[in-house]
Amino acid sequence: MDIPSTTLSNGISMPLLGLGVYAPRQNNEVQQAVEWALEAGCRLIDTAAAYGNEREVADAIRSSGIPRSDIFITTKVWNDDQGYNRTLRAFNRSLERLGIDAVDLYLIHWPIKEHRHDTWKALEKIYRDGRARAIGISNHYPAHIDELLTEAQILPAVNQIELSPYSFLPEVIDYCRQKNIQPEGYAPLVRGEKQNDPKLVALAEKYGKSTYQLLIRWSMQHGVVTIPKSVHRERIYENFDVLDFTISDEDMRHMNTFYDNTRIADDPRTLP
């Protein structure tokens, strides 16, 4: 399977489809899930210090036999570790758990107002030192990014936000594009909350795909890096079987109207 990729602002390539491993209380299943995803052709694994499963991700990659250079690894600094020195220490701990010398992408997990600039300065140092191939942000909306850019010397390469048709804010995606920041979407499947939405079911039947496959394809067709989460083998394989169909422009426009602000994480607009 040849998963399409996107080129980040600093020239490095990032797969458009990967595996998210946010799986509280399922750490024993994470290693197996990553192994199945790699088997299915996945080459992007998105973890975070807060998920507590960086070691399991590392074990899965090692046991896969796939060269490290072929796998794009993302991790993130958690809120409690933000600030310049604390971020550098947290990053070192993540590298140790992952058993690698550098990550492909390091993100600020949430915008913490009092630490925003110091945390970003730490990421800039990590990037300049060659220990992250790219740096970026997560759960940042335009107001947070505008504030960050008042002091940033390096532009974030990626902004990872919750994204499905039900939380779709086109102005946020447009903003990222204007700033040359690659949008990345987590929770594209809305944790199954919308799998029986009649509007979605009707479209899925039209394309002969599951509602989950339709949601993943919708996100990818927006040019957004998409990281569905699952720890089930059949679902993981299904999630990566989305490259053999295209949603029509008309149906994309229809899905863009599904917004009802259904979210599984906090709404960044409520953050200071």
From TrEMBL:
Sites where the protein binds substrate: 109
InterPro entries, per database record: AKR, Aldo/ket_reductase_CS, NAD(P)_OxRdtase_dom_sf, NADP_OxRdtase_dom
A GO MF label: oxidoreductase activity, acting on the CH-OH group of donors, NAD or NADP as acceptor
Keywords per UniProt: NADP, Oxidoreductase
Pfam families in alphabetical order: Aldo_ket_red
Active site: 51
Domain of life: Bacteria
Signal peptide: none
Alphabetized CDD domains for the sequence: AKR_AKR1-5-like
Record-annotated NADP-dependent oxidoreductase domain positions: 24-257
Site note Lowers pKa of active site Tyr, residues: 76
UniProt-listed PROSITE patterns: ALDOKETO_REDUCTASE_3
The family this protein is said to belong to: Belongs to the aldo/keto reductase family.
Name of the molecule in the record: Aldo/keto reductase
Organism: Spirosoma validum
